Amino acid sequence: MVTRPKLPRCIKAWISQRTTDMSLSAKQVGRLKPILFLLGLLPIVRWVWLGINDDLTANPVEFLTRSAGTWTLVCLLVTLSITPVRQVFQQPALVRLRRMCGLFAFFYCTLHMLAWSGWDQGFDLTDMLTDIAKRPFILVGMVAFLTMTALAITSNQFSMKRLGKRWQRLHQLVYLIGCLAILHYWWHKAGKHNFQEVSIYAGVLFLLLAWRFVRWGRQKFSPVPAVGNANKRAAVSASGNPDT
């Protein structure tokens, strides 16, 4: 009978310490926030640059409206990707970047709506209703925007404490927003039968939702020790950002 050699405690502790040291601390992630903020403003810098150089295409209103919509979807997908990335690479502190990404998605969605309702429709309710009746995909976008507004308003510690468990259920609507955004974009492109770009975004969203579904299934049907559940709840409480 062969006895498996055991590592000395000092080596185990060293390996454990090295593994732990690879994770970014909350302070290190906090230093990334200014960089992330500047990156989030790059689309606006690009618009200004194009405007100064008179390069906003022949229809600037349409260009800016669609560009803001595209960046809404990009920021939304980045927001949804943070949870898989932080769990796959064991970087729990990355959760602190999710709120900013989500708010940037709301910011560009607001610009997208204002560009359509203001520049394109002149804030004329009759014209807006006529356009919605003619192009129903706009209604889908408005539903997504109103839902996103509720999430943006409650993206703070006060709302988390006030709503309790209802807060996490509310913010799970981000999945619905993602699906509505894809439907809105897909329906818009259907008139021209141009699905190449929207198919890429739809594929990314599908992978992100599939990952969550598989993870949910494993947690649902795999026995998890009570201690593990307690540790998970403690981590969520400390971060102030439940998984979504």
From TrEMBL:
How does the UniProt record describe the way this protein sits in the membrane? Multi-pass membrane protein
Quote the InterPro entries the UniProt record gives.
Fe3_Rdtase_TM_dom (IPR013130), MsrQ-like (IPR022837)
Q: Report whether Metal-binding shows up as a keyword of the record.
A: yes
Reply yes or no: does the keyword Heme apply. Answer: yes
Query: Can you list the GO cellular component terms from the UniProt entry?
Result: plasma membrane
Instruction: Give the residue spans that cross the bilayer.
Output: 32-49, 69-89, 101-119, 139-158, 170-186, 198-214
Cite the Pfam families for this sequence. Ferric_reduct (PF01794)
Compartments in which it is found: Cell membrane; Membrane
Q: Say which domain of life the source belongs to.
A: Bacteria
Major localization class: membrane
Gene Ontology molecular functions = electron transfer activity; FMN binding; heme binding; metal ion binding; oxidoreductase activity, acting on diphenols and related substances as donors
This protein's cofactor list reads: heme b; FMN
Q: Which UniProt keywords apply?
A: Cell membrane, Electron transport, Flavoprotein, FMN, Heme, Iron, Membrane, Metal-binding, Transmembrane, Transmembrane helix, Transport
Pinpoint the Ferric oxidoreductase domain residues: 69-181
- How the cofactor binds, per note? Binds 1 heme b (iron(II)-protoporphyrin IX) group per subunit.
Q: Which family does it belong to?
A: Belongs to the MsrQ family.
Role of this protein: Part of the MsrPQ system that repairs oxidized periplasmic proteins containing methionine sulfoxide residues (Met-O), using respiratory chain electrons. Thus protects these proteins from oxidative-stress damage caused by reactive species of oxygen and chlorine generated by the host defense mechanisms. MsrPQ is essential for the maintenance of envelope integrity under bleach stress, rescuing a wide series of structurally unrelated periplasmic proteins from methionine oxidation.
How is the quaternary structure described? Heterodimer of a catalytic subunit (MsrP) and a heme-binding subunit (MsrQ).
Instruction: Please report the name of this protein according to its UniProt entry.
Output: Protein-methionine-sulfoxide reductase heme-binding subunit MsrQ
Native species: Jezberella montanilacus
